[in-house]
């Protein structure tokens, strides 16, 4: 596969559908050159995709789990086989560094399809012990048997974020298909091309036509049509909290099921009992905000809360770390920090940094636009100190390579600071006493807590407290998310 500016169509019912409303340009965030042209979509294309999905879903739901498993396993094999061909396109449209594009995009997507190939074979029935029931006006008494059975939701609308387009989509599509659903996908407008390329690949893997559909667009119209469509049973959304609230409002009118993974403002708590090795681990973990896709990740530890006894030493080391990171062309092996997704996102992050200055914070590293490269939407790794909890940069999700540092005196203050934002997606505790960290984790209003690590466990339920989302996916919990529980009762 090349990164020439290819013109795409929508993928609906196993075929390419030319868009009547034309195309829009996808831009490489590093070179500012065209990567390709995505189709403009709207209600008409969404309706065609939903009708195709509805038609295909009923038969797919009756397909045996072994057959569903084989198809998903074949998808994983093809992703692994074709991964090197997809990486240049994926990198060009996302601006991800080589390390991220090669190691954490296609391979992780393949892993997710392989995991849910196994998931298709997991038991979907929970037998319940028979119960003696007295006669009522409703029915005779007797010994009543029952089972709880997971059934497909039906047609699932998948709306994904721009930071990890294929990985994020795989995390929705694979469990949804494993449970017998069909999907209509609306990728983020900034980088939908790789998601479109998956259409023929899934077809080659043996997936029946109509189960996987992709409609794109530069604006909100296709997403709004998908959420409002009366024949869509569920919306799975990853993105901003503000958009998630709008989706919830519309979905609620028809009681659509929702799974929403929204914004985050992760706090990394460095406790007073964190020794040298733990503080070193914390340093590298917080620095991952800059090095991992330029901070464009909702789970990033963008707030570091450091005990007073370690604060000065820690922020000094963190500032030195930021200054040493290599920023530039993401196609170069040595590059650690690549561009943000767009000029608009770069300008948004810069406005937050300027606002922090105006509110009295101190820029300890970065904070100005890099002088090079000559093209691209870059923000230098930035560390902001003298931050108070009320400041905008301490409360809102920036989605860029910016870390804010706040000191604390004791555990109570650390917990208060960590819980002081509307978000609750992922927090981290760094301590020399893991029992202490475990107890502190129980006080954090966060769906996920890492103790002395920012590593993820693939089987854990993933989702947020408060305004960070609704529901959980990941591991077997992902199968639960894309199914409905049905109780079946009979006389024994």
Describe this structure in words.
- This protein is α/β, with parallel strands linked by helices.
- The chain is built from 15 helices and 21 strands.
- It folds into two domains: 281 residues, 3-Layer(aba) Sandwich (Aldehyde Dehydrogenase, Chain A, domain 1); 197 residues, Aldehyde Dehydrogenase, Chain A, domain 2 (3-Layer(aba) Sandwich).
- The strands form five sheets. Strands 15-16-17-14-13-18-19 form a seven-stranded mixed beta sheet, with helices on both faces.
- A hairpin with a 2-residue loop joins strand 2 and strand 3.
- Helix 2 packs antiparallel against helix 4, helix 2 packs antiparallel against helix 6 and helix 4 packs parallel to helix 5.
């Amino acid at each position: 596969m090349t990164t020439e500016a290819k013109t795409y169509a929508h993928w609906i019912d196993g075929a390419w559908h030319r868009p009547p409303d034309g195309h829009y340009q996808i831009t490489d965030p590093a070179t500012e050159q065209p990567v390709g042209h995505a189709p403009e979509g709207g209600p008409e294309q969404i309706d065609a995709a939903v009708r195709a999905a509805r038609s295909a879903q009923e038969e797919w739901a009756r397909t045996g789990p072994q057959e569903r498993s084989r198809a998903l396993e074949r998808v994983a094999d093809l992703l692994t086989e074709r991964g090197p061909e997809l990486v240049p396109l994926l990198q060009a449209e996302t601006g991800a560094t080589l390390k991220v594009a090669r190691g954490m995009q296609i391979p992780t997507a393949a892993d997710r399809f392989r995991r849910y190939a196994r998931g298709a074979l997991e038991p979907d029935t929970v037998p319940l012990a028979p119960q003696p029931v007295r006669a009522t006006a409703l029915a005779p008494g007797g010994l009543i048997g029952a089972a709880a059975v997971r059934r497909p939701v039906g047609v699932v609308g998948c709306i994904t974020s721009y930071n990890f387009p294929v990985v994020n989509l795989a995390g929705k599509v694979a469990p949804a298909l494993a449970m017998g659903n069909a999907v209509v996908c609306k990728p983020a407008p900034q980088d939908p091309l790789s998601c479109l390329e998956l259409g023929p690949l899934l077809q080659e893997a043996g997936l029946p036509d109509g189960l996987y559909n992709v409609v794109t667009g530069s604006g909100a119209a296709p997403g709004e049509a998908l959420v409002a469509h009366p024949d869509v049973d569920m919306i799975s959304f990853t993105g901003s909290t503000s958009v998630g609230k709008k989706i919830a409002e519309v979905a609620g009118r028809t009681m659509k099921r929702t799974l929403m993974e929204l914004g985050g403002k992760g706090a990394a708590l460095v406790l007073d009992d964190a020794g040298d090795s733990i503080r070193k681990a914390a340093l590298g973990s917080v620095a991952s905000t800059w090095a991992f896709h330029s901070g464009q990740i909702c789970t990033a530890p963008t707030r570091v809360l450091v005990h007073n006894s370690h604060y000065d030493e820690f922020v000094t080391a963190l500032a030195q770390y930021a200054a040493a990171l290599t920023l530039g062309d993401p196609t170069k092996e040595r590059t650690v920090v690549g561009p943000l997704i767009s000029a608009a996102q770069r300008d948004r992050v810069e406005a937050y940094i300027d606002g922090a200055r105006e509110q009295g914070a101190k820029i300890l590293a970065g904070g100005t636009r890099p002088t090079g490269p000559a093209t691209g939407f870059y923000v230098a790794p930035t560390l902001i100190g003298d931050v108070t909890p009320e400041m905008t940069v301490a409360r809102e999700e920036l989605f860029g390579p910016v870390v804010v540092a706040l000191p604390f005196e004791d555990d109570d203050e650390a917990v208060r600071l960590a819980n002081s934002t509307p978000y609750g997606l992922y927090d981290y505790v760094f301590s020399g006493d893991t029992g202490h960290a475990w107890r502190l984790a129980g006080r954090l209003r966060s769906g996920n807590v890492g103790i002395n690590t920012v590593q993820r466990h693939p089987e854990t339920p993933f989702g947020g407290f408060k305004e960070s989302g609704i529901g959980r996916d990941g591991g077997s919990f992902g199968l639960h998310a894309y199914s409905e529980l049905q109780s079946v009762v009979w006389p024994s």
